[in-house]
Every structure is written in C-alpha cells, then in structure tokens.
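Students often ask why we bother encoding 3D structure as a string. The short answer is that it lets us treat folding as translation between two languages. Here is a chain of 167 residues written in the first language.
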Amino acid sequence: MKTRRVFSAPDLQAAEAALHRALHLGIQPGHAALVGRPEIEMTQMPDDEKEGSPTDFLPAAMRGLIGGGVVGLVIGLLAMAIPAVDVPLAAVALCALVGALVGGWAAALAGSSVPSEVRRDYRSEIEAGKVLVVIDDEDERLLERASDAITATGTQRLHPVHHGLLH
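And here it is in the second language, the structure alphabet:
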C-alpha cells in the first residue's frame, strides 16, 4: 500500500529543489508532484511537475462503478427472487452492468467538481502561497530517506489529515 507524504515549501524554487532531491533518491516521477495556487501552476510550474489530477474525478468514478454495480446486482437478484417476475440470470448481469455504468458516470460528474484530496486537506497552505511537494511510495525506507532529503532543503513536513469514522 502506498504511503503519502506532503511537504510545504515557501516558494516554487524550494519546492522544485526538494522534488528533484526526492527523484534523485529513487522516487518515481509518477509518484511525486507539486501542488500550488492556480496562478503559480499555470504560469510558473512545468507540466511534468504538477499534480496529475487536480480534481477527484477518477477516484469518484471508481467508487461509482463499484457502488453502482453492487446496487444493480442486488436489484437484479431481488427481481430474480420474485417468481412472478421471472427474471433470467442474464438480466441480473445486465442490471449490474447498467448500475455500474450509471454509478460511474454520475460519480465522475460529481467528482469532477471536487478538488483532489491533497488540495482539500491542505487548502490553507496553498492559499497562503506555499507550494506543496507530494510523494507516494510503498517502500517506507525510501520514503524516509526522501523525506529527510526534502526537509533538508528547507521545506516543512505536514501532518497527514485522517479521514473516516475511526480518526
């Protein structure tokens, strides 16, 4: 499971220096990004250093596909359980497919207007003009080495924001 670490840099130059140190230590380019205010990202930040998706589009679509598919399957199975309706097994699969498609579509539309998790969790840092350095990896030792290198450039590690009922 990937672990995410987020750091706050005072400006773009410090953030880029921190990002390049993490990449030099072995963090994959697809697992590292910079996040900042829109005017900084649009005019000053190279495209290959930006966060891949500034919205929750893809995670929302995946949740919608799964949720809609489950709901469609349950509805199909309930219809099949009613003898008077006489629903064939193929119709149950069709209900699951239609549910997944509609759920994925609706959730993707909703997710396209929601900022990404990093942007939601660290909004105050971004609005203050800081540039965030975000790294993800499964290797804890690599993350620790990269974290030490990043903080050595003058960035500050931010505490993770916990979500859910247990946190």
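Translate back mentally: The chain has a mean pLDDT of 83. Keep this in mind for the problem set.
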